[in-house]
């Protein structure tokens, strides 16, 4: 199935971004959103998208952006995370075209205390918009789910006002994603806050809609970051279905319509049947990080196991005491193994999200 008309490979923003989201929702599939921390992980994602023949969402967290910039840098006032995120977006823009892939460039969770990072990225978007007529990033997530819900929505609306002239999309979080990610530990939170209420989703919808249609909601339906023993996570995607129905009724939309674009956080390790169910309730983006972290590492683990005897010194291996091992320890060899493993894992993700061959 081809992508909607008018969309050519490269990073998509504004109207084209909206077309892609609607296309996914109408056809009951979602795009994988993969956390990147280096040019290597961006390239692996683009390669995965090319193999799958489908668009991809590349995203960077605040910690991932600091890594992109180089961990030794001082991150005072988020300056390293801002520059790292910009470098990530620029790299993604150049390379998405080169790979011939339709891509969306996004920033992940930004809690209240990290707002200077968010502000810095919006500054970069505005500067890019002035020069090119579109924002640098397709979208950003502002995660004020630790704040009271009214404050979360009110502050998010202020940001959406700033983003609206650029048609830059805002993702917010309602309720709390359990587990731990990027240094935010929600492993001990009360169970009730792991499930969003339809009234809260409606409040966000009616507050944002007059400002801009460019928003998505990461609602909580028992999802957690990280991978845990089976049985420890109880996903209830029907919560999303109930919220769609509630909002549709309130706004007088036809029965069965899905007014809200939902985002599924904590996709790693999730029950495949629950993922499938979530797609039916209007989820258009699923975040995957932990499983691709494992895949990247596992590529190295297997490489080392297969080449162990050639990786113990610069010279000397089973073929002879004077044989050089340069070709084996060259980072191009083992980083490539990591990338290949991540590419393979993402094919499984595309299959789960029913988005193979959507470009
Ligand atoms: Zn998340």
Class derived from helix and strand content: alpha/beta
| Average of pLDDT | 94
Helix content: 40-55%
Order of helices and strands: EHEHEHHEHEHEEEHEEHEHEHEEHH
- What does the radius of gyration come to? 21 Å
Ligands in the structure?
Answer: zinc ion
- Residue stretches low in confidence (pLDDT < 50, at least 5 long) are none
Query: How many domains is the backbone divided into?
Result: 1
| Number of alpha- plus pi-helical segments | 12
Which CATH architecture is right?
Alpha-Beta Barrel
What fold name stands as the CATH topology?
TIM Barrel
CATH superfamily: Aldolase class I
What portion of residues belong to β-strands? Answer: 15-25%
User: Largest sheet, if any?
Assistant: 9 strands, parallel
Indicate the overall shape: globular
CATH top level label: Alpha Beta
Descriptive notes:
The protein is of the alpha/beta class and 359 residues long. Helix content is 47%, strand content 16%. Strand 7 (178-181) and strand 8 form a beta hairpin. The radius of gyration is 21 Å and the shape is globular. It starts with 9 loop residues before the first strand and ends in a 7-residue tail after the last helix. The model has no long low-confidence stretch (mean pLDDT 94). Zinc ion (ZN) binds next to loops. Zinc ion is lined by residues 109, 177, 181, 225, 265, 287.
